[in-house]
Design brief:
Blueprint (H helix, E strand, L loop, with lengths): L10 H6 L1 E4 L5 H11 L3 E3 L11 E5 L11 E6 L5 H5 L8 E3 L5 H17 L2 H9 L15 E5 L3 H12 L3 E6 L19 E4 L4 H6 L2 E4 L13 H6 L3 E5 L8 H9 L3 E6 L19 E3 L9 H16 L15
Parallel strand pairs: 1-2, 1-3, 3-4, 4-5, 6-7, 6-9, 7-8, 9-10, 10-11, 11-12
Length: 328
């Protein structure tokens, strides 16, 4: 039987809750949170505040001392909540929400930039420039080609919409069938021309020009891109803006060296940051960026927390609620 989600905070509990914020938040953002909630903020630290009042927390991580039934609601200032959930048992009664803001838009532009750069031979022209060598290289049209996008949530859909606006055929891959008809039949999801299940992606991998991951890290997605999936690729470029640990790096290296994967653009890695001696810097035809495709801003946190606060106080479950059992 499905486990029901935790109940929404009651108005009485929310009125009594202490507001705890991570010390790294900007002062202006903290003042906005205080204004919205109508209470003063205290530091989110290892030592719980006195009294048995419920806790409303805004931050990145949750100390063990606060992983108790006192936790009423935690709003993550990040989109990815895997480090937060991996830090210890999650109090089953606590609401968990997250910040997305304009992250989908930023990450979609990142993906589009690299796909266009590849089609215009930007990496090759950059290498030629460094050698002061004049050589004509062919360009490639982005329109009419296929992008296979893993993850059909807000971020994956934003990537699909932007690529689709450039004429790219977008195929979304949902890990599980959570909506619409069964796999193999037409499912309409905004941002995608077609949506398939993860178990039926072998043919789509062979047809794709770009394989793009926006997957979160959960118990089901660790090492998701392994030898079997990379073996099905036929010359696609792999772009990862999701989580680094969803990729088996040895399998990716093998696919790069045997040419199944044409190129890799990795904004995330299993271990970050990568030091100068990390072997990832020597992967062939690979560009690594510093987990910067979707940096969260204070405005994102303010807007999304405000939307969640308005929903909760109106008795509605926020759209940005995270299922702590699934991790997204």
């Amino acid at each position: 039987m499905p486990v029901p989600p935790p109940p929404l905070p009651s108005p009485d509990a929310l009125a009594k809750a202490r507001l705890l914020v991570t010390p790294s938040l900007d002062g202006g953002l903290v003042r906005e949170l205080e204004r919205l909630t109508g209470r003063d903020a205290q530091p989110l630290e290892d030592v719980p505040p006195p009294s048995e009042a419920p806790l409303l927390c805004v931050g990145e991580t949750l100390p063990d001392a606060l992983r108790t039934s006192r936790l009423l609601w935690f709003h993550s200032v990040n989109a990815g909540t895997d480090p937060l959930l991996a830090g210890g048992p999650w109090p089953g009664s606590a609401l968990l929400t997250r910040t997305v803001g304009r992250m989908g838009e930023r990450m979609a532009q990142y993906v589009l930039a690299w796909t266009l750069a590849e089609c215009q031979s930007v990496p090759e022209f950059t290498a030629l420039h460094a050698r002061a060598r004049w050589e004509r290289l062919p360009s490639e049209l982005i329109a009419g080609q296929t992008a296979l996008i893993y993850g059909t949530g807000r971020i994956g859909a934003a990537v699909g919409r932007l690529l689709g606006a450039c004429g790219v055929r977008t195929v979304g891959v949902a890990r599980t069938t959570r909506f619409g008809p069964a796999p193999g039949t037409a499912r309409v999801v905004p941002g995608f021309d077609r949506v398939i299940g993860a178990a039926e992606d072998e043919e789509a991998l062979a047809e794709a020009r770009w394989v793009i991951s926006t997957l979160p890290l959960t118990g089901a997605t660790g090492g998701f891109f392994g030898a079997a999936r990379f073996a099905a690729v036929r010359g696609a470029t792999f772009v990862n803006v999701g989580r680094g640990a969803t990729v088996d790096m040895e399998a990716l290296e093998t696919a790069l060296r045997d040419g199944r994967v044409r190129r890799a653009v990795l904004d995330v890695l299993p271990e970050e940051p990568a030091g100068p001696g990390d072997p990832v810097w020597k992967l062939p035809r690979t560009v690594i960026t510093s987990h910067s495709s979707g940096i969260t801003t204070d405005e994102d946190v303010s807007l999304d927390f405000t939307a969640c606060w308005e929903a909760v106080t109106a008795g509605r479950r926020p759209e940005l609620t995270v299922d702590a059992r699934r991790g997204y």
